[in-house]
Design brief:
Elements: H1 2-6, H2 12-22, H3 68-80, H4 100-106, H5 113-120, H6 135-144, H7 193-204, H8 207-220, H9 228-232, H10 254-267
Helix pairs in contact: 4-5
GO cellular component, one term: membrane
InterPro entries: BEACH_dom (IPR000409), BEACH_dom_sf (IPR036372), BEACH_Domain (IPR050865)
Pfam family, one: Beach
Length: 274
């Protein structure tokens, strides 16, 4: 697959899907859903110029520190962390870039994710301000908050329907602007959900992304995923998210095991290292 990708026989999209599959990610498990990168940083221009490198996100950095301002806080958090019991290793992020709640967050307007979201929120929609209501606002929140590190899901590159409230769900209204949450607000350069998907997919297959995608793959699936390279890349997550970090079979206390299993399922899981 790698050779095919290098020879440009398969698209960037196909390559990412194959890597996700090899690393144990699947559409059948919300806790291990395929993970895709944010690839753009320009959600405000009238036109999207894919020949301009400045419109792309820096793929060599984890999403939590794409904004240089956050790097210092993230570093300090890691350096100052001390677990008195010695169980929890140091980490940069207490949340994860891919988890079940995040998948439902993005796909809230389409079933069965709507129902799953409502179940997760004890029988109702989460408050409107926490809903996925705008792509530019979501990106801005990522830039402002080093604790929000959600990457994307594959649907952002082929499935315009998830951006529309075709079922007419009442998702509430935003507290400050009183704006009603309905269809997802798109970047100015996108004239419709289809147009957004078309341009976003074009961006994914662009020359710039083709030349830099491996940098992101190193962080998520490759050698910068754990160990000294991960520390240096500011890419260490809570210990439970890593494969083999916890030996569930060794836990004899049923309650403790259930609690840990629940945590692993809800918290997010780092893909198997390829």
């Amino acid at each position: 697959v790698l050779q095919k990708w290098v020879n440009r026989e398969i698209s960037n999209f196909d390559y990412l899907i194959q890597l996700n599959t090899m690393a144990g990610r699947t559409y059948n498990d919300l806790a291990q859903y395929p993970v895709f990168p944010w690839i753009l940083r320009d959600y405000t221009s009238e036109e999207l110029d894919l020949n301009n490198p400045a419109v792309f996100r820096d793929l060599s950095k984890p999403i939590g520190v794409v904004n240089e301002k956050n790097a210092k806080a993230v570093k300090e958090k890691y350096e100052n962390f001390e677990d008195p019991l010695g169980i929890v290793d140091k980490f940069h992020y207490g949340t994860h870039y891919s988890n079940a709640a995040g998948v439902m967050h993005y796909l809230i307007r389409v079933e069965p994710f709507t129902t799953l979201h409502i179940q997760l929120q004890s029988g109702r929609f989460d408050c409107a301000d926490r809903q996925f209501h705008s792509i530019p606002a979501t990106w801005q929140a990522l830039m402002d908050n080093p604790n929000d590190v959600k990457e994307l899901i594959p649907e952002f590159f082929y499935f315009p329907e998830f951006l529309e409230n075709q079922n007419g769900f009442n998702l509430g209204q935003l507290q400050i602007s009183k704006e009603v949450v309905n269809d997802v607000v798109l970047p100015k350069w996108a004239h419709s959900p289809e147009d957004f998907i078309y341009k976003h997919r074009k961006a994914l297959e662009s020359e710039y992304v083709s030349a830099h995608l491996h940098e992101w793959i190193d962080l998520i699936f490759g050698y910068k995923q754990r160990g000294p390279a991960a520390v240096e890349a500011l890419n260490v997550f809570y210990y439970c998210t890593y494969e083999g970090a916890v030996d569930l079979d060794a836990l004899t206390d049923e309650k403790e095991r259930k609690a840990l299993e629940g945590m692993i399922n809800n918290f997010g899981q780092t893909p198997c290292q390829l």
